[in-house]
Each structure stands twice: as C-alpha cells, then as structure tokens.
Amino acid sequence: RDVTPLPPLTAIPPDLQTLADYERVAERHMPAASWAHVQSGSAATLARNRAAFERISLLPRMLADLRGGHTRLTLFGREHQAPILFAPVAYHRLAHPEGELACVRASAAMGIGMVVSTLSSVPLETIAEAARDAARTLGVAPVPLWFQLYLQEDRAVSAELVARAEAAGYEAIVLTVDASIKTSGFALPAGVTAANLPGGADRRQTSAPGGRILFGTRLADDAPSWDDVAWLRASTRLPVILKGLLAAEDAHIAIAHGAEAIIVSNHGGRTLDGAPSAIDVLPAMAEAVAGAAPLLIDGGVRTGTDIVKARALGATAVLVGRPQLHGLAVAGMAGVAHVAHILRADLELAMAQLGCPTLDRIGPACLFTRAS
Ligand code: FNR
Predict the structure, then answer these.
(1) Mutate which of 114, 270, 326 for ligand 1 pocket (most atoms within 8 A of beta carbon)
(2) What is the mean pLDDT of residues 128-155?
(3) Distance in Å, CA 77 to ligand 1 centroid
(4) Which positions does UniProt annotate for glyoxylate binding (predicted)?
(5) Which residues pair with 206 in a beta bridge?
C-alpha cells in the first residue's frame, strides 16, 4: 500500500467514541510501514491479550449508593485522576510531528500519568518542560511523569539517562526487562530519532529475525541480569519499577532486589511468541507479591470494564500503549486527550453499574464465576 497518509484531524468527529474507533481510523493517518510497526506483535499473544479480558464476566449490582464516587488513587505519594497511565511507547513522532509533546500535554490536561520511553523522539527534558508548562497554563497540579529505562550497553550511558531523568523531575524509573534482546527490522523514517541517546540511535543490537545465532555472541553475554537491577536500585533515589514480568517467581526476585512496583506485561505481544496475557497471570502474581508492592498491568486494555477486571484481580492500575499513538495519529493532542477521557468515562460507568463508587470497592465480588 503506498497511499499518502491523511493529515491529523483538527476536530474530533462524533463517530469516534471508543478506542476501537480510534484504532480503525488511525491506520489512514499513518504511513503504512509505521502503522505495521506499531500494530505488530505475535498474532497468538496479541489475540490472547484481548481474549483474556473478554473471557471474564462481571456481576452488576443494583441500587447502590454512588454519592461521593470518583476514580482517584494515590501511587508513590501522588494523586492520579484515574488508575490509568500512558505506557512507555517509543518514537511518538511516527504518529504525529509533535510526538511526545502532544501526548504529554494531553496527559497533563487529563491528569493521566505518562511513562516516557528511553526511545522517545523528543528529549526527555523537553517533554518534562512541556508537562510543567501545560499544568501552569491549565492551572492544574503537574502530572506524575515516570522515565522508562532500557539498559544501555555502556553502564555509564544508563547512569547518565537516570541522572537526567532525576534532574528533569521524573518521579520513578521503570526498568523494562523483557526486551533487552530484540529482533525488529523496522527502519525509522527520516527525521525520527532516539532523541535521548548518543548518536540518536538505539544500540541494542537489532538483527533480522530468523537464522541468527544468539548464544555465544555479545548480545547474549552482555544481556542485563538481576545484578543490573541491584545496580539501578543503588544508583537512584527514585522508586524503581520493573516492567515486563509474567512469572510469579520473578516477582519474588524483583522485590528482593528492591523493586517498588511491578508492571505485569508481555510488551503488547511484541516479545516472546506464546507468552500468556498479563491479566491471566495476574492472580498468581498478586498471590506471590502479597501486597508487598503495587502491581500494574498492560496489554490489550481498551475499555473501562477491562480496568475494572484488572482491579478485581489484584492490579492497582493499568497502562495503555498503542491507543496513545492511535489518538496522536488521528488528532494529535486532542486525540490523545479524548482517548484518555473515553477510558476514564467508561471506567466510571462500569464502576457505577457494579455498585462501586470508588476503586477500593472493586474486588473479586465484581467477577462472575459460574458455579461448577
Ligand atoms: C511498545 N512498548 C514499549 N515498552 C517499553 O518499555 N519501552 C518502549 O520503548 C516501548 N515501545 C513500544 C513501541 C510500540 C510501537 C508498542 C506498541 C509498544 C510496550 C508498551 O509499553 C506496552 O507494554 C504495550 O504497548 C501494552 O500493550 P497495548 O496497550 O499496546 O495493547
């Protein structure tokens, strides 16, 4: 397909009412290669990420007292307007020329925290500055920003990224541990770079998938290990959050290494083909962690009922990845803000229908399980 993408819309048309609508419309607003890259993932795991939510039934409750209802929660001492964050997603400028700046302004306007990727296409300091400017203009409290770290080959480069994030006012470091070895062949279009990294390039060795021997190479021998988690814990005063765990045993090890929260994730189906969905492993993770650290999840979260299901099974909050880029491609900042608004409004409706005016009221009793 070689069609010129449509420019971003300047007004939101009334037929855009769900995240699925945004996904459908976004395709025409992005170059074909970028669209394919954003949507890509293991077909089985991608399908599972949605199917796992769809399999769960909710049990509505009637005539509950909903006065004083809200969706706020406190995380690391900071108030969030809803249990929703924007997941770290590389290269927002693939979707819109303003890239991460448009996303963070939406984030600030909606009070939805954002996790900025190591591979952001705008420097992390510029993003933090835009968030502060937006909060000042809108007269709202600054939104919590977290920085996502991909460990770099050279530890000094990783240390520098962490120091920059601290200096710029980021409030947590999210260490992504499930994508140290990657095999994407996607070539960035002209004008889009890894703005935080020396030379503007992601140096985690990318190689064409298939046929490449891994063991015995530097890629395998230098891959990050639990020692790097201990190193990071000792190198920053910020909370360290591990992203990309699925095994209960890894959750134990993470907490023993000082992780203050865990993001249960299969990277949007982009890493191990055949990995389970986060929502399916969540009960085992919650049991393993036993309240020692908040659990967040991502992968296929697209509706308010998905968020309720995640909360009922033990998650504190959820993150959304691709929908940010869909919103950006369709209508820039307004599109991302609308995506956040849809999720939040949809969550409130689901909570009301379940008779839960606040997040702490959502629990296993919200789930319907067929008596066997
Ligand atoms: C990602 N993800 C990701 N994760 C991360 O820690 N650092 C990154 O730079 C990226 N980059 C990235 C790019 C693109 C195009 C996608 C789709 C995903 C993974 C992301 O944080 C999150 O785990 C998933 O996107 C969640 O799944 P959904 O919401 O996209 O279904």
Answers:
(1) 270
(2) 96
(3) 25
(4) 150, 267, 270
(5) 182
Amino acid sitting at position 177 = V
Report the pLDDT value the prediction gives residue 327, as an integer from 0 to 100.
98
**Class of residue 129 by CB neighbours under 10 A (exposed 0-12, middle 13-18, buried 19+):** middle
The Cα–Cα gap between 34 and 191 comes to 13
pLDDT digits (tens, 9 = 90+) for 100-109: 999 999 999 9
pLDDT in tens, 343-360: 999 999 999 999 999 999
Q: Would you say 170 is a known binding-site residue?
A: no
Instruction: Evaluate: CB of 75 within 6 angstroms of ligand 1.
Output: no
- How many other C-beta atoms lie within 10 A of the C-beta of residue 284? 17
Q: Residues 76-81: contacts with CB within 8 Å, 24+ apart?
A: 76/144, 76/171, 76/172, 76/239, 76/260, 76/261, 78/144, 78/171, 79/141, 80/111, 80/112, 80/113, 80/144, 80/317, 81/110, 81/111, 81/112, 81/344
CA distances from 174 to 76, 168, 250, 259 (A): 13, 15, 16, 10
Measured CA to CA, the distance from residue 165 to residue 82 in angstroms comes to 24
- For ligand 1, atom 18, which residue shows the shortest CA distance? 89
Reported as a single tens digit per residue, the pLDDT across 192-203 is: 999 999 999 887
Neighbours of 69 (CB within 10 A): 15
CATH number of 19-59+68-182+191-197+215-368: 3.20.20.70
Q: Is 119 in the pocket of ligand 1 (CB under 6 A)?
A: yes
Q: How many other C-beta atoms are found inside a 10 Å radius of the C-beta of residue 217?
A: 14
Cα-to-centroid distance, 172 and ligand 1 (Å): 18
Task: Show Cβ contacts of residue 215 under 8 Å, excluding neighbours closer than 6 positions.
Answer: none
Question: Which amino acid appears at position 7 of this protein?
Answer: P
Residue 209 confidence (pLDDT) above 70? no
Tokens of 358: 């606040």
Protein residue closest via CA to atom 15 of ligand 1: 38
Which amino acid, residue 214?
A: L
Assess whether the C-beta atom of 313 lies below 6 angstroms from ligand 1. Answer: no
